[in-house]
Amino acid sequence: MTPTRLLALIALVPACYAGSVAETPDASTGDATTSQSSSTSTGPDDPATTGSTTATTGSASDDEPDLGALGYTADDAREYLASIAPMVVGRLLSPDEDNLIHHFGADAIVPIVEAWVSEPAFADTARAMLQVKLAASGSKDGVDFELPGNLAAHLARNDRPYGELLTAPYCVDPVGAEIPCDTGAPYAAGVLTTRAYLIANASRFNLRRARRMMFIFTCSTYPMDPAVQPRIAKDTLIPMFRAMTKEEQTVPEAANGFGNGSACYSCHGQFSAHAQLFVRFSQDGLYHPEATGLQDPDNELGRSINGLYASHFVDPAAAPLEVSQVLNQLVDTLVDAGRVLSESPAFYPCAARNVLEYSFGMSEAEAVDIDPKLLAELTTRAHARDLRLRADAAAGPTFGDLFVVALTHPRVLQVVIGLPESKP
Amino acid sequence: MSPRSIPSRACALALTTCALACGAPPPVLEDSDTDAPASTGAPDEPTTAANTDASTGAPEAEPPRDPFDLDRSKVKLLPFRVRFLRLQQLSGLPADDPAFAVLRARRYELGDYDYASGVNPDLTWNASRISVWIAAVLPVCRAPAMLARFPVFPDDLPALLTAAYGTTPDADLLADYELLLGDANLDEPTRHDSICAVALSALEFVAQ
Questions:
Q1: Most buried among A65, A155, B72, B171, by the most CB within 10 A?
Q2: CA–CA distance, A262 with A258 (Å, rounded to integer)
Q3: Residue A225: its chain B contacts at CB < 8 A?
Q4: Domain coordinates in residue numbering, chain B
Q5: At residue A143, what are phi and psi to the nearest 5 degrees?
Q6: How far apart are the first and last CA of chain B?
Q7: How does pLDDT run along chain A (424 residues), one tens digit per residue?
């Protein structure tokens, strides 16, 4: 390449971006947007000729936000929808959508987002969201790490409840057909009983499996409120987990470990109940009915024999059992646990948080700070939408419900494009 | 200038110097200084979703507080899957078209993930990644479908930018291109490659 060509290109690039700056709204100011973005390639048509999305305009119910009345303009709507469309449906706004925005302004936001969740690409979004959340994709050594993502896509595609991520008694193959799960367990509990989840989160004492289950689906971390998750009786735990002070710690390995072995009981009094559910699943994700849950004396702490992990329970009769307690309810296996979690008050607010986290590329640490009041509102609206659309068959909000209510909430718009100009 | 434009300029300069001037992209090392991939880190904070209520007690006249923050100080790339979809839509080519061969082959260098193989998503945008991206989009730019749709620059530049970004470019942007293209002594294929690659590497195309 000649120096002239190189210089020309170097000079070209900043100018390109200087031009684009004028179009790039600075939503961080919180001011009303003054975006001058114009329509996409085709001019607005008569609304009567708009595509299928127009038909959904009239389906919005009274409990949905009236974004136009809040003062958001057509330009606001276009800017907002253009910013989220790639993450939700992997594309730009279509001419039909642009036409809808032209004619209906911000009131077009709801029907457009509602139409998105019926597109085939939305199922792939649900798949990607869960793949990233569970750190499970691909395949290796004969293990299909796509099963959790397949289930998410299946639920999104078929308008099944998001809660079935934890309760589906089946797994799903790449083309969407229901198949048995791959652990060999005599039951299935959605993604929890996939080798993908179990391998990706394998760790001693089954701590990571328990921790990620509670975090991903209830957004809770240890120690939890004991009113929500009572602690297991201290004397039923192996000695190292009973300690609340350094002096109480009698196990040398634990005394030199995390927290110098103090305050173990505050977390492990709760960990113990959740980790126990995984006691029969080995490090390679396979189910072992013969598991003992006992510490392998020849292995590191937290490991049992045959690639299994040790129970928190000291009683050899209790250590191999899957019977446990989740959120103050007795459960027999992960099947019960999945049901209890999916019915818990924290489940759908957490699902809404996961949707916002994915849609806006937030980290888990950033998502922790999402206003719980917003998440509660989104939960209420998601349930209302589920009831409105599936009155007789409402079984809990779907992926689509969650994305629609989250991405059309005025406070979410406020974060992305600021307050409407007409509102102080 | 908006905060977003600063990394745009820096990255674009790196784009030019690293990729186009060299012809072929340099080997890409894994980034050691990048942020942890979103959504994969372990939750460390002992908090729950229901422990704060910042808006309580705020005077009614005050505008409502944002319910969460979006960190706009860093460029957030669209996931590789989404960027690939956008290229397919722009070009009208299927995912398995030979024009995407480099993109498919180097997908993990471009931030795609395969957890089973230990490859986490990485949505940072840096000089080395930009250079790989340029190498991957140039075959797309040269694909007959793209040449047919956008055969001559600057004549077809507005159409390209509109199709790529979803908004009609403003006059200033087009004037900048025109001015600089006027000064550049480029043969037609190089001009086409350069403009197409720059347009498809802009944050308007690859970032959230």
A1: A155
A2: 8
A3: 48
A4: 5-25+73-206
A5: -95, 130
A6: 18
A7: 333 333 333 333 322 322 222 222 333 333 332 233 333 333 344 443 343 333 333 344 445 557 888 899 999 999 999 999 999 999 999 999 999 999 999 999 999 999 999 999 999 999 999 999 999 999 999 999 999 999 999 999 999 999 999 999 999 999 999 999 999 999 999 999 999 999 999 999 999 999 999 999 999 999 999 999 999 999 999 998 988 877 777 777 776 666 666 689 999 999 999 999 999 999 999 999 999 999 999 999 999 999 999 999 999 999 999 999 999 999 999 999 999 999 999 999 999 999 999 999 999 999 999 999 999 999 999 999 999 999 989 999 999 999 999 999 999 999 999 988 755 4
DSSP structural state of residue A139: E
Q: Pick B49's closest partner by Cβ from A21, A219, A358.
A: A219
Q: Does B125 touch chain A (CB under 8 A)?
A: no
Shortest Cα–Cα distance, A317 to chain B (Å):
32
Q: Specify the residue for token string 């190189």.
A: A6
**Is 0.95 exceeded by the ipTM?**
no
Dist. CA A243–CA A268, nearest whole Å: 10
CB contact B79 to A (< 8 Å): yes
